[in-house]
Design a protein that fits this description.
heterodimer; A: 298 residues; alpha+beta; Sulfite Oxidase, Chain A, domain 2; 7-stranded mixed sheet; 5-stranded mixed sheet; 8 helices; 12 strands; B: 212 residues; mainly alpha; 11 helices; globular; disordered C terminus
Amino acid sequence: MANRWKNTLKERDVTPESAYLNRRQLIAGAAAAGAFGSIAQGAKAEELKPNKWDDITGYCNYYEFGTQKTDPAKYAHALTIKPWTVKIDGMVDKPGDYTFEDIMAKMTVEERIYRFRCVEKWAMVVPWNGFELADLLQLAGVQSNAKYVAFETVLRPEEMPGVHTNVLDWPYVEGLRMDEAMHPLTIMATGIYGKDIPKQNGAPLRLVVPWKFGFKSIKSIVRITATEHEPPTSWSKAYGRAYGFYSNVNPERNFPWSQESEKLLGSGLFARPQPTRLFNGYDEVASLYAGMDLQKYY
Amino acid sequence: MLTWVNDMLRRIPAWVLYPGLALPGVVYFYWGVTNQLGADPVERLEHQYGEWALQLMIAVLAITPLRRFVGLNLLKFRRAVGLMSFFYVVLHLMVWVVLDKWLNWAGIWEDIVKRPFITVGMLAFLLLLPLAVTSNNQALRKLGGAAWRKLHLLTYPAAITGAVHYLLIVKSWPPEPMIYLAIVTGLVAMRVLWTRMPRRANRPGAAAQNQS
């Protein structure tokens, strides 16, 4: 079951970059049609102009390949992504090694144009292609008492120059609460602009959680574990006071720096910073955190 | 060979360093304006200016050891290199204040007070300010050599503060800022040790001159 959420057209075919730039008029029309469920409120009617391919694929944080923004594009070519298997284990009915091809055969890939907000205060708009994580979890038969999902990035020192320095505790790990993982906004991305996702962006499949800071959207996933306990996450292990388990985009967040504004990449040297929006503007997730103190659970 | 190099250096006037070292900064700014600095030109500009400031600071600190241990005499260039380091500190600060913070003074003040890496960065700037202001012959005369030299010992804490500022900015522990901090600390330590040791031990062949 896919297509539960839309923020723009649902073109599943390869869409050339130039075509994206002419679509903004259509988005307003789609919103006016109002043919979407209640969760489809929020960001969908807005003008979202995707960033250029070169910016999306040339400006990356993927520390396994180096800490400079340009390092992943330089070094990620060494990563072997065929064959690729994802181990799905923990509290699931059908644990096992799922090949990438097996997964793709069963999933519905659709296009999601999302805002992407880094904790470093920059933002992009990315036209992802991918499927809802909920579908994959259901495929594996996630059990009802599982409360969290843990993710792990591939660790191959011979292919990843960045892991020879202990910038982080490798392998990179992330996690979501089950309701966050099952939310229709949460996807596993396998493409950008209708092309296979480049290695520097997390090939062959990565998580995208658009209302959380970018580091939650873990790349090149080899393991998914359904669990009862909140799993450790790389950045909270490295600097827990700054980067918590939830890491929702929040303008009130003030440590280690103020998150009140953000800079949309690709808008030039003289672009004025824009105000940050709670949950990165994806208001439909607010109910997941009803009654929670977001300063405490950051 | 060394004599030849020193002779050649003597013929180069120090003033050429001002336009020479300013040029990369101007070119970089031009690239920023013409959208050739990638997705985030503000960050690139800010970081590049900061890094050049730190590199020139290291160059300043290296001049005395180079003369003492290698015999290379670059002393006459020291003021120009130091002032150009400060030039890039100012550019770095201006990119932050104008292009990054958009003259949001309340936000700027909050950053200075609340964010350690910015507090430390501003401290480095304040330490450098009296040095830049007194880097001219008039100030040297007015202060007198001894007081002037004493004031300019601020170079050492300023350099360390600058390197710490870089280290605090980054999200984790990548190698570059640690390398810078190690070099700066090494140069400062060298200077401290050298001042403490009996002078003759430090300059082979120059012992006789130093005995007075």
